Amino acid sequence: MRKYPYSLAALLACGVVHAQVPASVPVISHAAGAQAAVRRGWHFYDDPAVHEPQKEIVPPAPVALPKPTTPQPPPEVKALRDLQAQLEQLKAVAVMNPTVANVRRYMELESKIVRNASLFADLSQKVAWANPDLDHTTQGRPVNAQALEVFEQVQMQERYSALANIGTDHILMFFFRGDCPYCHAYGPVLRAFSTKYRIQVLPVSLDGGAVPGFTNARTDNGTAATLNVKQVPALFLAQPITGKIMPVGFGVLSEGQLVERIDALRPRAAEAVEAPLTTNYSSR
């Protein structure tokens, strides 16, 4: 007993502790506790667990998309630009320092460019001759005198056909003065036009005078001022149903001019000048 004084005391202490443990707590055998203590040794104080730092997640580097390549112009385009720049430089040198050598260099390069342009023009003309759709002389108004005459005849015939029924809903307002020689010269043209296209002419006298052939002339009651008539003879195309009035022209016009202008005015009714067509004119 003397050799193991501390061992006996330890055993007694363990027995006391075992007696004080509540019944609800599971009892660990002394042998298991002793083995666990032996394994742990003197390291009964555990160091806190070491948490390794989380590694930073590096996103993948963005992949650079290839830039769209700009189509390179043909070498002729670059050559022309270089030639133009060279010409401007030689011109500037020749203007600022007009020596024989400087002017000659400029003129030589300019002559080269003119020759190339002349070759281009000649070839373009040949291509146009072989391709009528590219020949501007066959499109629109001809430039040849004989073809131009035929073109005008066809145009006139088309206009005559278009104006065949214009008198059904339009009239012509003829403003004149009795002392105006141009108005007297214009009278026969208007009468012939009125008969040919069956369109009524409403003559309006600004001074109370008369023009031969228009016995039913009426005295102006302010309509001329509304239409800004400052010169006679003056002719307007009117549509009584809608009350729209469009100027045809001032001065003496030929039959061809009347046909051309009235035909051009017909689809432009939206731009007409509103005027009181219902106003009564006093008879002379």
Put the structure in a nutshell.
By secondary structure, this protein is an alpha/beta fold.
Question: Can you put this structure into words, describing what you see?
Answer:
The structure is a single chain. The protein has 284 residues and is of the alpha/beta class. Among the domains are: 75-127, no CATH class; 154-274, Glutaredoxin (3-Layer(aba) Sandwich), CATH 3.40.30. The protein contains eight helices and six strands, in the order H-H-H-H-H-E-H-E-E-H-E-E-H-E. It has helices spanning 5-20, 30-40, 75-96, 100-130, 145-162, 181-197, 223-226, 255-265, and strands spanning 171-176, 200-205, 218-219, 234-239, 244-250, 273-274. It has a six-stranded mixed sheet. A hairpin with a 4-residue loop joins strand 4 (234-239) and strand 5 (244-250). The protein is elongated and about 115 Å long.
What descriptive keywords fit this protein?
Glutaredoxin, 6-stranded mixed sheet, 8 helices, 284 residues, disordered N terminus, 6 strands, disordered C terminus, alpha/beta, single chain
Please tally the β strands and state the result.
6
**Proper CATH architecture of the domain at 154-274:** 3-Layer(aba) Sandwich
CATH superfamily of the domain at 154-274: Glutaredoxin
Mean pLDDT: 79
Given the C-alpha coordinates, what overall shape results?
Answer: elongated
In angstroms, what separates the terminal alpha carbons? Answer: 167 Å
Structural class: alpha/beta
Number of helices, counting only DSSP H or I runs of 4 residues or more: 8
If strands are numbered along the chain, what order do they take across the biggest sheet?
Answer: 3-2-1-4-5-6
- Outline the biggest β-sheet: 6 strands, mixed
Spell the H/E element sequence: HHHHHEHEEHEEHE
CATH structural fold name of the domain at 154-274 = Glutaredoxin
Low-confidence stretches: 1-8, 10-21, 23-27, 268-284
Strand content: 5-15%
CA radius of gyration is 55 Å
CATH class of the domain at 154-274: Alpha Beta
